[in-house]
Design goal:
seven-stranded mixed sheet, 2 domains, globular, 11 helices, 9 strands
């Protein structure tokens, strides 16, 4: 919370400037508590956010640590490309998760700033937070994809992943991830809307979602990959930040016999290891054939 490109800072939640004095900050916190308390007609979710914000900046020590952390945000780092320092074998992967969205983000920032700028400036937190929502959303999704790829890599041997797969007749759409696991073949979408997400009739809803249809998009792009590679998926997984979901894993039902789940990012590895309930399992011979078909048929946007 408070550290993503779309997330409001602790100061924004409390309705104050980062330069406010400690005593004024305390008064603002108490005012926000009264304004958002459910017993006085306030919003329960915002009431919780106000409390969490205060946990970050409520003491001079916590506030100093929070301010340092905000200055040290490393959004420019490509998490999925960081080499493992351990000796444990990593999952086999193809493509660079988040790379396509990072390219679009830099293009958007150049348009926003009126000129191409060094990456260090484009990724500066203060610059990012002043950018249009679409640019911040693009970076948030890139970071989400990289976090997913890093989690998959830690699953080790026995897992194979493809990232940023071109989809559609003209290749302008993409499927974030395909994972071949011992428990089945899965299509994955990594999202970060910057706020709580709910579900209705198997689709994401909520003010932050802004009418997008991530589940429908995921299933459509999985069907494209299934058709061109002649493979059958066992399940679909929508991955969201931990703070945006009430439960580690939420079943969204089944579409044409394909189970769909929304999972917290921290629960992804457990879900892939155990398998999505109802997912179609693969035998060893079929898994080898599926891996071969995918390697031959899919095109990753950034090798």
């Amino acid at each position: 919370m408070f550290d993503g490109p779309l997330a409001a800072s602790a100061y924004e939640v409390l309705g104050v400037a980062p330069t406010i004095g400690d005593e004024e900050l305390r008064r603002a916190y108490r005012l926000r508590l009264r304004q958002t308390h459910p017993d006085t007609g306030g919003d329960a979710a915002m009431f919780v956010r106000v409390q969490r914000a205060w946990e970050h900046v409520g003491t001079p020590q916590d506030r100093a640590a929070y301010d340092r952390g905000r200055q040290d945000v490393a959004w420019a780092a490509h998490a999925a490309s960081v080499a493992s320092t351990g000796s444990r074998p990593r999952a086999t992967s193809y493509g660079r998760a988040g790379a396509w969205r990072r390219e679009r983000f830099l293009e958007m920032m150049a348009g926003h700033l009126g000129q191409a700028v060094p990456e260090a400036q484009a990724y500066d937190p203060a610059v990012v937070r002043s950018a249009p929502w679409a640019a911040r959303r693009m970076l948030a999704d890139a970071l989400a994809e990289e976090s997913t790829a890093a989690a998959i890599a830690e699953l080790g041997i026995g897992f194979t992943a493809w990232h940023d797969i071109a989809c559609g007749p003209d290749g302008t759409e993409k499927l974030d991830h395909v994972v071949l696991a011992p428990t089945g073949l899965y299509g994955l979408m990594s999202e970060d809307f910057g706020d709580d997400v709910r579900f209705r009739q198997g689709e994401a809803i909520g003010e932050a979602v802004r009418g997008e249809t991530p589940v429908a998009d995921l299933l459509s792009r999985m069907r494209w990959v299934a058709r061109v590679a002649r493979v059958r998926f066992g399940g679909a997984i929508l991955i969201l930040p931990d703070d945006d979901l009430d439960h580690p894993a939420t079943s969204l039902g089944s579409v044409r016999g394909l189970p769909v789940v929304a999972v917290r990012r921290s629960a992804l590895r457990t879900v892939l290891r155990r398998g999505v309930p109802g997912a179609r399992p693969l035998g060893m011979t079929e898994a080898f054939d599926v891996r071969t078909r995918l390697k031959q048929a899919v095109r990753v946007l950034t090798p």
